[in-house]
Amino acid sequence: MRAYFSRRYRFSASHRLHSDSYSETENQKTYGKCNNPHGHGHNYIVEVTTGGQVDAQTGMVCDLVKLDDAVRKNVVERFDLTNLNLDECFRKLVPTTENLCIAIHERLMPVFQSGVLGQVDLVRVRVEETANNFFEFTGK
């Protein structure tokens, strides 16, 4: 029987939503206050959902310690207390939370594919930017 396990992580980062292909007027119209030249920050909540068979010996879908280690190394340490505009992931992308969600998924997928976490799949990454805004990416 397939079961799912989700875990939440937190980090803080800043960004400015701005596209070099737009004029200043177009940027302001498209991104509004998020186009502030000084940027702005968020306390992001990242939710990672895994899926797989419940292990008969441990009773778990996923090794929590290994998952925590993977997310800490590949996501939290990478993005916490940074300006996302300066990160190589966003060199050619606007650092929207949609793009951040995809970048996090892409950073975690090799860990799942390597088998370090066992026979478990990365089902979904969800990033909460504010109490009202959140984004999900399943890799599809």
Annotation keywords:
5 strands; 30% helix; 140 residues; alpha+beta; 3 helices; 5-stranded mixed β-sheet
Describe the structure.
This protein has 140 residues and is of the alpha+beta class. The chain is built from three helices and five strands, in the order βαβαβαββ. It has helices spanning 24-31, 64-79, 97-114; strands at 2-15, 40-53, 82-83, 120-128, 134-137. Strands 3-1-2-4-5 form a five-stranded mixed sheet.
Oligomer: single chain
Envelope shape: elongated
Strand content: 25-35%
| Helix residue percentage | 25-40%
Count helical runs. 3
**Protein structure class:** alpha+beta
Order of helices and strands: EHEHEHEE
Through-space gap between termini: 23 Å
User: What is the typical, i.e. mean, pLDDT?
Assistant: 96
Uncertain runs? none
The biggest beta sheet reads: 5 strands, mixed
Radius of gyration: 17 Å
Strand arrangement, major sheet = 3-1-2-4-5
Number of strands: 5
